[in-house]
Amino acid sequence: MSTLIERVQDAGLPRHVALIMDGNGRWANVHGLPRTAGHQAGAQAAERLIRFAGRQLGLNYLTLFAFSTENWNRSTAEVDFLMDLLDQFIAEKLKEFVAEGVRLVVSGELEDLPKRLQETVAYAIEQTAANDRLVLNVALNYGSRQEVVRACRQIVRAAVAGQLRPEDLDEATFTRFLYTNGIPDPDLIIRTSGEMRLSNFLLWQGAYAELFFSDTLWPDFTPAELLEAISNFQKRERRFGS
Predict the structure, then answer these.
(1) Is the dihedral of CA 212, 215, 221, 225 positive or negative?
(2) Residues 61, 16 contacting (CB under 8 angstroms)
(3) Of 32, 54, 209, 211, which one has the fewest beta carbons inside 10 Å?
(4) How much is the pLDDT for 1?
(5) How many domains does the chain have?
(6) Is residue 21 part of a domain?
(7) What is the predicted pLDDT for the residue at 41?
């Protein structure tokens, strides 16, 4: 494993890897367990990957798609469980994040989340703000179309207020109004569970990202499979339209 890590590191790591963590429910079905058990196993997989990415691999930016705007359509019981699980995960991992140099940022509409989760997220962001080993961006109550519409509204308000001229609007300016302002675009987007779509995830930011689709259900996704995806990425020629 250490030799494989070194080979991947020597070949040049992607600066930013984003993950669509899919398959918790199917994993639970396969194992004859309730969906909540699948989400718990998924949280453990996320914990393993965050620790590996920051401590052993040396990745700079990692984005995890934790809860989408469409996930509110699930049952109230499942949504409530996910909110509690996210709150517990962030609260329990905060001490480790601080010690390991992980800086937490969040992309999404936090105002719609339960008050306790909002407070936990805000506190964790504040406590890790000075960390610089790994930036962990959690996409929480996130939808890419919603993000673009939100950015457009803010740009219109800035224009009406005389703070922005229409002719000054370019891609770089638009990007400043996105949740991910200050975070480089993902070089590699990975989706687990065999599904082959982006599902409203980082549509603007992922314009030139390389895509990797894994058949593995998210709770079974391992650091070794992350290395496999990065190794595959390193063999591709990125032309950016040229």
Answers:
(1) negative
(2) yes
(3) 32
(4) 67
(5) 1
(6) yes
(7) 98
- Residue-wise pLDDT for 228-240, tens only, equals 999 999 999 887 7
Is 78 inside a domain boundary?
yes
200 given a catalytic annotation? no
> 158's torsion region: left (phi>0), alpha (psi -120 to 50) or beta?
alpha
Instruction: Give the tens place of pLDDT for each residue, 85-98.
Output: 999 999 999 999 99
d(CA 137, CA 44): 17
Which entry of 22, 24, 137, 187 is annotated as an active-site residue? Answer: 22
For 227, the domain range is 2-232
Residue 129 domain-assigned (yes or no): yes
CATH number of the domain at 38, please: 3.40.1180.10
Residue 71 is a catalytic residue: yes
For the chain, which residues score pLDDT lower than 70? 1-2, 242
Is 175 exposed, middle or buried (CB count within 10 Å of its CB: 0-12, 13-18, 19+)? Answer: middle
Is residue 124 in a domain?
yes
- In one-letter notation, the amino acid at residue 172 is A
Give residue-wise pLDDT tens across range 17-59. 999 999 999 999 999 999 999 999 999 999 999 999 999 999 9
Burial of 163 (0-12, 13-18, 19+ CB in 10 A): exposed
Catalytic, out of 29, 60, 71, 200: 71
